[in-house]
Task: inverse folding
């Protein structure tokens, strides 16, 4: 039995970068481990195989990534040269009222990115809410986001899009002056 920090570091040393980032992000997001604990665990792993890979995973990990789809999206973005977004950014209207929290935000470009893992239409629906109600609620949320002066466009993708993420990156790129 190992600590969560040691387990995350071991996964980061032995698994593919993308999978290891998803594990590290999940541990950080859940609050079951702190960045300092991960740093100590990777230091303690000195001399073991692929500690450099583990350090790269931990440097890339982000406690704000809300699920493996967002983690995998970030890795794909980085590999395809899409600038790093701000995660879980809150969009407010001009009066300062909360409109919505978005998965990915590129400040200064007006680009919002949303990963649709489909949970909001399935097991994460509100009590008594039908899938159709959830879709309508999400449509209204997106319409409210698009209506904000700071939002130029919303780009959405799903699990299937992660396989050939180049198409999503191409949809993101013309939307922003990177």
Result:
């Amino acid at each position: 039995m190992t600590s969560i920090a040691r387990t995350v570091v071991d996964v980061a040393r032995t698994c593919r970068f993308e999978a290891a980032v998803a594990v590290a992000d999940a541990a950080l997001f859940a609050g079951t481990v702190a960045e300092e604990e991960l740093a100590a665990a990777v230091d303690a792993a000195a001399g073991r195989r692929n500690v450099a890979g583990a350090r790269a995973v931990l440097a890339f990990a982000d406690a704000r990534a809300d699920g493996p789809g967002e983690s995998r999206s970030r890795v794909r973005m980085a590999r395809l040269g899409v600038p790093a977004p701000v995660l879980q950014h809150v969009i407010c209207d001009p009066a300062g009222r909360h409109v919505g929290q978005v998965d990915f935000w590129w400040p200064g470009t007006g680009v919002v990115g949303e990963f649709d893992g489909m949970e909001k239409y399935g097991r994460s629906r509100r009590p008594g809410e039908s899938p159709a109600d959830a879709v309508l609620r999400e449509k209204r949320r997106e319409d409210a986001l698009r209506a904000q002066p700071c939002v130029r466009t919303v780009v959405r993708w799903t699990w299937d899009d992660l396989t050939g993420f180049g198409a999503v990156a191409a949809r993101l790129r013309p939307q922003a002056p990177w």
Observations:
- DSSP finds eight helices and four strands in the chain.
- The chain has two domains: 4-63, 82-175.
- The beta strands are 86-92, 98-106, 111-116, 153-158.
- The mean pLDDT is 92.
